[in-house]
Amino acid sequence: MISPTYIPLILRQIVRRPARTLLTVGGIATAMFLFIAVQSMQQGVALATQQSAGDNTLVVYREDRYCPFTSKLPEHYLPRISAIAGVKSAVPIKVIVNNCRASLDVVTFRGVPSDSLGDQLSASVVVLEGSIEDWRKRSDSAILGETLAKRRGLRTGDRFDAAGVVSYVAGIVRSDQPQDQNVAYVHLDFLQQTVDRKLGIVTQFNVKVDDASQLESVAAAIDAEFRFAEQPTSTRPEKAFVAQAAADMIDLIGFAKYLGIGCLAAVLALVGNAILLSVQDRIREHAILQTLGYGGMLIGRLIVAEGLFIAFIGGAAGTFAALAVIEWGQYSFSIDGLSIPIQASASLIATGLLIATGLGIAAGLVPAWQASRRTIADCFRAV
Amino acid sequence: MIRPLIDLDLDVEAGAFLALMGPSGSGKTTLLNLIAGIDQPTHGTLTIDGQNIGALSRSKLAAWRSGHIGYVFQLYNLVPVLTAYENIELPLLLHKLSRKERHRRVSASLEQVGLADRHDHYPRQLSGGQEQRVAIARAIVTQPKIIVADEPTGDLDKPSALAIMQLLQALNRDMKQTLIMVTHDPKTAEFADLTLHLDKGRLAEATVLA
Questions:
Q1: Cβ contacts (< 8 Å) between B150 and chain A: which residues?
Q2: Domain extents in chain B
Q3: Taking the domains of chain A in order of start, what are their residue ranges?
Q4: With a threshold of 0.90, does the pTM exceed it?
Q5: Which of A73, A156, A159, B50 has the fewest Cβ atoms within 10 angstroms?
Q6: Please, what is the end-to-end C-alpha distance for chain B in angstroms?
Q7: For residue range A275-323, what is the model confidence (pLDDT) as tens digits?
Q8: Closest CB from A5, A12, A375 relative to B86
Q9: Amino acid A48: pLDDT
């Protein structure tokens, strides 16, 4: 597009007009920050709710109940669920959250039987600190997801208190599954006794099936098994369960995509306005360049390249600032004990940079075209 | 329809120093801009160094200017955000030259105009006379065949104007480049070998310096 010989010239134009550059870059960075933040929410929703081929977990919940405080199932359902054809394993889970409302800082406790934690954690889980063995040794111990541990600043050996549950951090794990990232796994009987003062009641069963293709048929078989029981069940694939349980919040996040589109429009308008004003300010300069032998097309390309650089710098600043905030804050939306992480992936960063660059080029096209068509005499007459 | 130049027939020898004089609106700047390839004639031919530049497209004319013309403006017209060195380097960016060669040529031009120690100064940090010297260095750095100057001393005090004219005269004498200058000032025109007087777009008279 443009010879590298001219790049120092373009950069001098950008660096040596600091007020214009800083204002424009600041505006673009702010818009791109918002865009990346919104897209990170969207990406978190996709990660938490979109079924992938390898997902083989079902959630058995109390029928017509939608939050962990009201879903109460007898723990003795476990052998009947385990006996259903296609079920690989089933884990009774009690879920307690410290905050019933939608929040960025919800602590979710999942009580699981001591011998079932391995089944419950996804295969991709990596133990970062401590160990599962340490967790088994203490009745009040907890294994924390990395996101929760970072957000609360917790390390192995610490004690922490949330929702009236005081537990000891026996380990910290990293997982690619959103529901493992923002959770504290504790012993089921410990949680039941701490919260309910009695054993035998759980919130849900997490069931792994032999083959992902059997999810629907096994879910139907489980619900049929308990259709006439005192506590009938509603069974869905885990991600469909998240999508249904957090539907309102997902709708809100879905609406936020319009904010993202608005941010991109703001970037386009900002760069376009900055370049247009800059071209109008520099009509004499373009006449000088033409007199020296710079062709109209070359001047047009210099203008487009300047827009591209400014948009890229602003885009990169906003994108990496958003990434830093997301990484530092380890935020996730939680509702009814389910987590929707706010995550910025490498592809999102690349997309952000590409979009900023593309908008920079697009914004420079019209001013560049106008400048390239102007004759030297027109330029000098205009000033 | 306004015809700024009428039936003008003019031959300029290579290496000459020509002054164009005349009242405002006489067509001298129009003639200068035609010679510099900034404007194009609507009638007739304009042949420079064997090439009819009136027939060139806009892009080819720009390329021709970069190789053949050095332009000195009355108001210097330096790019304000570039240093003296960078302003002088501007026309060289259009030529396939290494950075080292560009540096050599810019340094040599700065030496020629006596501003080697001001290479890193911005235009706002220079006096009018110094700015014009930078503009002259920018005009000669590509070693063009023709230097055109539009009222090069019009915005300068007398000592600075004298120094600029002595510089232009020396460059014309030493480098054998054709120098065509528009001026209102007879004292300035005295530096030229030949002065042409224009009136209402026509050549009125010629004065040859003895």
A1: none
A2: 17-208
A3: 4-48+248-382, 64-231
A4: no
A5: B50
A6: 40
A7: 888 888 889 999 999 999 999 999 999 999 999 999 999 999 999 999 9
A8: A12
A9: 78
